[in-house]
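S.,

As promised, the flavin mononucleotide run. Input:
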Amino acid sequence: MAIDDPQDDGDPRDDGDPRDDGDPRDDDAFERLNEMADPAMVVVTARSGERRDGCLVGFHSQCSIEPVRYAVWMSKANLTTEIVLDCTHLGVHFLTDADHELADLFGSETGDQVDKFSFISSTDGPHGVPTIDDLPNRFVARRTAVLEDESDHLCVIIEPLDIRAADSPGSPLRLSAVADLQPGHVATDRRD
Ligand SMILES: Cc1cc2nc3c(=O)[nH]c(=O)nc-3n(C[C@H](O)[C@H](O)[C@H](O)COP(=O)(O)O)c2cc1C
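Predicted complex:
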């Protein structure tokens, strides 16, 4: 599907960057808007053969109603992303405000250095996807597409299949509550 670019006035010298039109992007305003959104945090897990990992993710959302689809944006710097690209199914676990410690493990440590699953209790779910026992609100999903541009995250589109949710799942752990965490990999890192 071709989508018209509203910025494109046909000038062949225009590469589409709005800052070229003397309209500098206001990064502080953009940050304030994102702070308003304050997303709930999830942990995405994946396995490929003997390799398994998981990482904390704030970029995620349902992205289609019929058929149901979900999107997670995975940093090109992460080991988890490497494994996600090498497998067919992945797990998405929703954190509550009691799960800061798990957010710290999955967001501040990298599987390049530690086996995060050695610190927690986990169970192999459908298709061998590692599921985290202390995070019962979760789904296992099938990967349907990966979208990539020059940005530092990949958009991974998935179909939720095996879905578990408590009747009262609790209050979400929001991005604002994990602002103290330092990511195990900064998004500008690139894997060799
Ligand atoms: C608050 C916060 C939000 C994050 N959001 C994302 C995200 O949306 N997508 C992503 O791929 N990584 C995200 N990360 C980074 C990874 O969770 C982190 O780099 C992790 O240590 C990677 O582990 P891995 O190398 O074992 O995959 C986030 C980290 C933090 C602390």
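The first strand starts at residue 42 and ends at 48. Residues 41-178 form a domain with the Pnp Oxidase; Chain A fold (CATH 2.30.110.10).

- D.
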